Amino acid sequence: MKIIEWFDNLPLPGLIKDIIFVVVVVGGISLLSQLVLGLWTPMVAVESGSMVPNLNIGDIVVVQGASRTDVIPWDKAEKTGYTAFNNPGDVILYRPYGKASLNLLDQLKMLIGFAPDKDKATPIIHRALRYVKEGEAMWDGGPLAPFSGYITKGDHNDVIDQMAGQIFGTAKASYLQANRGDIMDVGSGIFLDKQTGLLIYETKNGTFVGEGISFLTPVKEEWVIGVARAKIPLIGYVRLLPNIIFDEIKKLVS
Known about the structure:
This protein is an alpha+beta fold.
């Protein structure tokens, strides 16, 4: 109570006091979130329909940081009866190919029509199906995993993320050396071209170019931001509304 009285008696304009109060409250909530859930910002808005009907566009999802919990994939959950959002296995939030998450500035740029940098992406929220080790088949009859990680899938999608993509060309091996500063090493002969956003796969049979959600790559544990624990339906539309309005304006203009 004395703190509140002291704050009210500070010789500052009312607006400045309001700003300080908001900053303190938001900071306190973020600190509490970090202590309890292991993330400074534990809530994300669902932006696509890939998890319908279990997570819908506009839902706010509360995420527990990966450092505070273990991921239970579908194949292990089935044996114990564990479910999350109506299906076996945990729903995880992950950074595709290890790309950096979009920050506030990136989101503001997108609102006015500018694309984010190719080495940044909106995190994906999909279900972990199983964990494969390096050298194991990523699916029955499929290619071997270039490194260990999770096989993932949106509940509404027809195929797993590791099959959702395509190889559509080849590249000269010298391209990687000539553009080393613009190439991000994903791991085990897989690279991300920061200029184009395309993937480059170095194999014994040649160097190939492709694209996809997490095409031919499991989700490394260090790419996992956290595990979805709860949802608040539709509230996320407050966050998504500016994007929706801008998209509709672009359609009308074009």
